[in-house]
Automatic annotation (TrEMBL), chain A:
Full protein name: Coenzyme F420-reducing hydrogenase, gamma subunit
Keyword Oxidoreductase included in the entry's annotation: yes
Any matching Pfam family: Oxidored_q6
The UniProt record lists the keyword Nucleus: no
Keywords: Oxidoreductase, Periplasm
Location of this chain's protein in the cell: Periplasm
GO cellular component terms attached to this protein's record: periplasmic space
Superkingdom, natural source: Bacteria
Domain annotation NADH:ubiquinone oxidoreductase-like 20kDa subunit: ranges: 13-149
PANTHER family according to UniProt: COENZYME F420-REDUCING HYDROGENASE, GAMMA SUBUNIT, F420-NON-REDUCING HYDROGENASE VHU SUBUNIT G
GO MF, one annotated term: oxidoreductase activity
InterPro entries, alphabetized: Hydrogenase_assoc-protein, NADH_UbQ_OxRdtase-like_20kDa, NiFe_Hase_small_N_sf
TrEMBL record, chain B:
Keywords: Iron, Iron-sulfur, Metal-binding
InterPro entries: 4Fe4S_Fe-S-bd, 4Fe4S_Fe_S_CS, Cbr1-like_FAD-bd_dom, Dihydroorotate_DH_Fe-S-bd, FAD-bd_FR_type, FNR_nucleotide-bd, OxRdtase_FAD/NAD-bd, Riboflavin_synthase-like_b-brl
Ranges annotated as spanning the membrane: none
Residue stretches making up the FAD-binding FR-type domain: 364-459
Domain of life: Bacteria
Descriptive protein name: NAD(P)H-flavin reductase
Xref: PANTHER family: ANAEROBIC SULFITE REDUCTASE SUBUNIT A
MF (Gene Ontology): iron-sulfur cluster binding; metal ion binding; oxidoreductase activity
Start and end residues of each 4Fe-4S ferredoxin-type domain: 235-266
Amino acid sequence: MKMKVGLFDFAGCEGCQLTVMNLEDQLLQVLQHIELVEFRELMTETAEQIDIAFVEGSICRPGDRQRLKQIRQRSKVLVALGSCADNGGVNALGSDRTPEVLRQQVYANDLPHLYTETPQPLSAVVKVDYRVPGCPIDGQEFLAILQALLLQQQPELPAFAVCVECKLAEYPCSFDYGQVCLGPVTRAGCRAICIDGGGHCRGCRGLIDNPRTSPYHRILEQHGLTVEEILDQYRTFNVSEKAP
Amino acid sequence: MLSDFSLKFQAEEQPERPLWRAIQSTEILHFVRSLLLAYDVIGVQKKRGRLVLDSLQDAADLVLEFPPAVHSPKKFLFPHWDQLFRFKLDENILLEAETAAPPRIIFGMHPCDLHAVKILDDCLFEGETDSSYRAKREATLLIGVDCTPDEFCFCTSLGTDRIAEGFDLFLHKRDGHYLIQTGSERGRKLLQDHAPETYDGPEESPLPLQVKQCDNKIKFPFESLPNLLEDAYDDKIWQELGHRCLGCGSCTLLCPTCYCFNVQDKLEISMQEGQRIRTWDSCQFDQFAQVANGNNFRSSQADRQRHRFFRKYKYLWEKHQRTACVGCGRCRRECLSEIEPVTVLNQMFADSPQPAETRPGSEYQPQMAQIIDVEQLSEKDRLFRLRLPQSIDFTPGSFMQISVFGLGEAPFSIASAPDGGNEIELMVRKAGTLTQALHRSRKGDSIGLRGPFGSGYPLASMHGKDLLLVAGGRGLLAIRSLLQAALADRHNFGRITLLCGARDIEALVFPEDLLDWHRSELLDCRIAVKDPDNSWGIPSLDISYLFKDLDIDPQRTIAAVSGPPEMYRQVNPLLFRMGLAEENLYLNLERHMKCGLGKCGKCQINNIYVCECGPIFPYSAIKHLGEAIER
């Protein structure tokens, strides 16, 4: 019996679902081991019972909570897919003001169909069993987590920081370029793709389990940065999370 | 320990005499072009604006003058992602061994990185040879090149700035050209086949060993590192480093000699086959020393930093007699917290209690101890009670060097038990000029002392056991120290039996003590004297007769036998016949321990220095040594 797998989405850019679709040939190979029962971007069918539900997006519109609870009820295992689902993601950026103020500031009009609450991660509503972090997710990590679940193993995320992946790939350190980087406290698994692209780490994959806060703050000070400056960076993806 | 393989590398492949040839840059270009036809040539090149070590596509891209910041060649000899084997999950699980490594040349390695390969060889060929490393090592030729140290390099402090062997070829930079030196038969052949014009060129005169200059220096001889760390296990510096360290692991990943790894299975998407791979791990990571129930045996970052330093400068030194650090500075160069080994070691040294150790010859200088009591034990034997300037810690069986200035120095077993104080007892038998001079010393005089030296009886591991102590002649000295320690802590031991033998009554040391012990309820003390005219009225017997009606439980007995070798030849078989295990028999193998520092060689038994590893040894540890007790 193949495992029944569904993908679901809430508020988000759908980039994580696209990352799954972009797996193309690999996705076709995976289909030999799973039965894809629900995936709005690919198919119209729906399912009553799901073994593994991957849920993208954050919870903010009226009705989202109810729909998420129903998905949870139908699913044996529920996995948060990407930053928005995992910790609110960029959607939660405006959470320092009320939705009404935000709506006025962005649209300058009261548009009822845009009514939202402050975006929240899935875990604010239902029990989340596992997570695929990142904005967007890493396709290969998604496959590895799916594979672990098919084998009924505990999926494991790297416990070390992004610095490891920079060193392995021999990327120069962002701090050497005077850039704020969240790499030393952010969970690896992205292969330091932003640093490879000439950028710096904004912490989209969330903190490692044991971030070394005080040495990190000392390093920021040495580079002429305040904690507030790094918090600005950190909040891009982690508004609802405790700061490093 | 050298495996057959490394022996092959070092002995068979060493050419009779290095060749020295001049080679111009254009010749190097042709040489590399020719090599590219037959080998995967790894060299430093510019990629996306950065200098990296990678597979060369075009010989013209090779950079020979590159800074020490370029990452080490470890990634080609011991890669981060190394397939150990492939498996197929058919009905029968099918394993496929890793195929052989491609023939490869690393063209351009700084001396420190060549030294680092020696350390990897030490570690990975030791015991069970790591065949995956071996395959790559055998298929890879190493070509060294000169370097210019930067402000983070400290190779000159470790002697790794220069190299005489361990490469196949080495390029020395001269004005406008290079001198190429062969370091192996493989290297000579490579030059002959791929740069024949250079090979056939005129002989150049060899350069002396090329020494570099570094401003970053360890301020003490690096040979003191293991001892420095030995005393620094609980140093506050580890807590300081623990507070500074991010735990990111960059130091170990960049280290050219760190090779600790993890082993994992990676299934293909088909889930029908996969590979078992190993990946670099780091002792700096949270889970490195964590076990299944969640316990972490190095739970703080301070523990992990200490482990890193101890492994680099102490643990591997003790195994392979070289530091596992080559002073390349990579760990510091990319450490955001700027943890700098040289600063750490220098600070530790500055904080260490013995600054005197830096003075040349200071380890040979005795300190003065006061004689606080002299007891005449017999006509020839005197017991000196000495007070040292500070408390003295030793295990029973250790020894001191007594100095009489003008006459020299001689080793004496400590005859008293360690009690945490600053007094010890040494027994001196009048024999030569030095001991005669000592006998003339009076209470209140000062004499020179060095020590304690050596490793004695492991008291704590004897707790709860029966002790069978067998002493012959002056062998009673070490036994007295052990017995006094056991009697001071009597409830921690089972039955205690002392068998003491001597040639004649005069040869019995501590006669008063023996009589006391004989009368004591705390132990069973039996004495045998060979000489029939003994005045004590004890039967004239050989010590082996004391074993006749001896009743011991071999499972719970530890035997300490201390005396001349002929006694061991006689007594050991008796003990083994009683069922005593070899590791429960301790022998005292005192030799002429002149320096006490594991250097002079006078006390050496085969490959073991008695003054360092003994004089007390478990029989199981020395039975293979031909010089230990055999005639």
